[in-house]
Write a structure and sequence with these properties.
heterodimer; A: mainly alpha; 14 helices; flat; B: 303 residues; mainly alpha; MetI-like fold; 2 domains; 0% strand
Chain lengths: 335, 303
């Protein structure tokens, strides 16, 4: 690949001359060799710098202050009021992580967020894989099934969540159905446990199609001769699944699981639209941070931003560990 | 995470299909009748589960009264399209449509235009800082909304861009641009390097190669990137709910919420609006979804 790339740019790396050129010459060579690469990524670097890095730095500074909506710069009518918030160091982080009532404010949401992510991604993957396996057979009408099963992904989430809200409401169709079957009718949108249950249910419903379609693509790219060979060797259906299908899906799986974890961890729309502000205990960290910064009065900007930083840190740590774990496995495969 | 789950649920035990699970008798070509029947049964149930909430929404949108969702049986007797005509004539539906389109299309155009050159550069060239740059692109995509929301709110209110289309477009670009660059890199990787070489041999500059040879070939990839940024901007809830203040500038994601809070839960109108929004988006989605998945997973695995 590197060779092709170097050929493509018309440049060659590491010319075999023994002399090491001076720094100025090297700088000029680097410039001549790479200037168009940098020129091409320059627009994105500018945009990211202005839209991501600057707000990020600014946000990090805010987390070190006690900014809220009462002491931030604001304009009321024609009067402009200057910001009066103060620098307080890492007090926000300390307060969130081990201040008084930090369990209720942070750790309970943290545990629920981890649980939510783990359960949702597991359900997405297992159900998605099951449906993909079923659709990968020679089956009458499978295109039709596929089209219907993709529907929850095709319709925008903010639309379907409202549909679910009608169904889950007290007296809605789900409870009516449960009552007809003489089953208990939980208060889906009021009781904490059932709120969490409902949130996971709705998010699973929304997220399965993506997994299903991706895994179906992965299944179709597995070489069918592998199955023939396995069958010749007398492998049962279960053994074929375990030793041919799942290893064959590895590249797709590792990507969709990573994406799934990131998306679920950051899932804002489902919980926000399903409950609004009515469910303090069912809020995951993202929606909770939003509530602190924008859903209450006075708005606590500093704490909200600090939550954001913590969330980002959690995600970055997870992604690095995950990628390293995948790479370690690949090395084992190579040996 | 679920890779481990799969491992735990898959002990190399007796080679029998586990109880309760469908028999996956995958004999190529032919299925045993029982297996086919079981597959159909599961798929039909799954399809019903997938279809029902949406069908229910459509059904409720036909009921004329706002409490009809509690007595669905009564809707049969008085089905009407009144909700739709009311939504189209009396509410700010078309204002919302305009602002949604302005914001989504603005994000799409800026995102794809800026990201295309970058996608090409990171696909074809290795330069100092390449790996770090790819890492930045990846990390930016997974920013939780909470990270940028507070500082963006501050910055935009200083620039007086709160409650303006431009402000929202800029916010969306912070996720759309790195995402499109990542996705387009995956697509450019599938275009053979030999084409670049041919262009170079014939005397094109690197920019010329990109603009005259690669871009036309990459149209499907560009379309997917465009579509994906469009639906992301279209369905975004958090920033739109916070940054758009005036009724006429709401995007659909915010406008739908306003039915519940302001107009004392006019669920029938809300359902009708939801259906009107969902139909074109879903139709469009079906046209491109196959490419969408390929783009997503290709970009990820080659990182």
């Amino acid at each position: 690949m590197t060779v092709a790339i170097d050929r493509a740019t018309g440049k060659r790396r590491g010319e075999p001359d023994g002399r090491r050129p001076g720094p100025l010459t090297r700088l000029r060579q680097t410039y001549q060799r790479y200037w168009y690469a940098y020129a091409m990524i320059a627009p994105v670097i500018v945009v990211l710098g202005v839209l991501v890095v600057y707000p990020l730095v600014r946000g990090f500074y805010l987390t070190l202050t006690n900014a809220n909506s009462l002491n931030s710069a604001r304009t009321i009518g024609v009067n402009h009021i200057e910001a009066t918030y103060e620098f307080i160091g890492f007090d926000n982080y300390a307060d969130i992580l081990w201040g008084p009532t930090s369990y209720d404010r942070f750790w309970s949401h943290f545990i629920w967020t981890i649980l939510w992510t783990a359960l949702c991604v597991t359900l997405h993957y297992v159900i998605g894989l099951g449906l993909a396996l079923l659709l990968n057979q020679k089956l009458r009408g499978r295109t039709f099934y596929r089209l219907i099963l993709v529907l929850p992904w095709a319709v925008p989430t903010f639309v379907t969540v409202f549909g679910w809200r009608f169904m889950l409401a007290d007296g809605g169709v789900i409870n009516a159905g449960l009552e007809a079957l003489h089953l208990p009718t939980p208060l889906w949108l009021e009781d904490t446990f059932w709120q969490r249950f409902a949130a996971i249910m709705v998010n699973t419903w929304c997220g399965v199609p993506f997994m299903m379609v991706s895994l179906l693509g992965g299944l179709q790219s597995i070489d069918s001769t592998l199955y023939e060979a396995a069958e010749m060797d007398g492998a049962t259906a279960w053994q074929r699944l375990r030793h041919v299908t799942l290893p064959g899906l590895r590249p797709v799986s590792s990507t969709v699981v990573l994406l799934g974890v990131i998306w679920t961890f950051n899932q804002f729309a489902v919980i926000f639209l399903l409950f609004g502000d009515t469910a303090p205990d069912a809020q995951i960290l993202v929606t909770w941070a939003y509530y602190l910064g924008f859903g209450q009065q006075p708005r606590d900007f500093a704490q909200s931003a600090a939550y954001g930083m913590l969330l980002l840190a959690i995600l970055i740590v997870f992604t690095s560990v995950y990628r390293r774990w995948l790479n370690r496995d690949e090395q084992q495969f190579a040996i | 995470m679920s890779t481990t789950t799969v491992k735990t649920t898959a002990p190399s035990g007796p080679p029998v299909a586990p109880g309760g699970a469908p028999r996956r008798a995958r004999r190529r070509g032919e299925n045993s009748p029982a297996g086919a029947l079981a597959s159909h049964a599961i798929l039909i149930v799954a399809s019903l589960v997938a279809l029902f909430p949406i069908a229910w929404l459509v059904f409720l949108s036909l009921g004329p009264d706002k409490d009809d969702y509690l007595h669905p049986g009564r809707i049969f007797g008085k089905m009407t399209l009144d909700n739709y005509s009311f939504v189209l004539q009396e509410t700010s539906f078309f204002d919302w449509l305009v602002s949604t389109l302005v914001v989504s299309l603005g994000t799409t155009v800026i995102g794809v235009l800026i990201a295309a050159t970058t996608g090409y550069a990171v696909s074809r060239m290795r330069f100092p800082g390449y790996r770090k740059f790819m890492w930045v692109l990846l990390v930016t995509q997974m920013f939780p909304v909470a990270v940028l929301m507070v500082p963006m709110y501050e910055i935009l209110s200083e620039l007086r861009l709160i409650d303006s289309y431009l402000g929202l477009i800029l916010v969306y670009c912070s996720t759309a641009v790195p995402y499109c660059a990542w996705l387009l890199k995956g697509y450019f990787d599938t275009i053979p390097f030999e084409i670049d070489e041919a262009g170079r041999v014939d005397g094109l500059t690197p920019f010329g190669t990109f603009a005259r040879l690669i871009l036309p070939l990459a149209k499907p990839g560009l379309a997917v990137a465009a579509f994906y940024s469009f639906i992301t901007a279209f369905g975004e809830v958090a920033f739109a709910s916070t940054f758009m203040l005036s009724d006429t500038k709401y995007t659909f994601a915010v406008g739908l919420q306003s039915f519940v809070s302001e107009h004392d839960a006019q669920r029938n109108l809300m359902a009708a609006t939801a259906v009107l929004v969902a139909i074109p988006v879903s139709a469009f989605f079906y046209l491109v979804q196959r490419n969408l998945v390929t783009g997503l997973t290709a970009g990820g695995t080659k990182g």
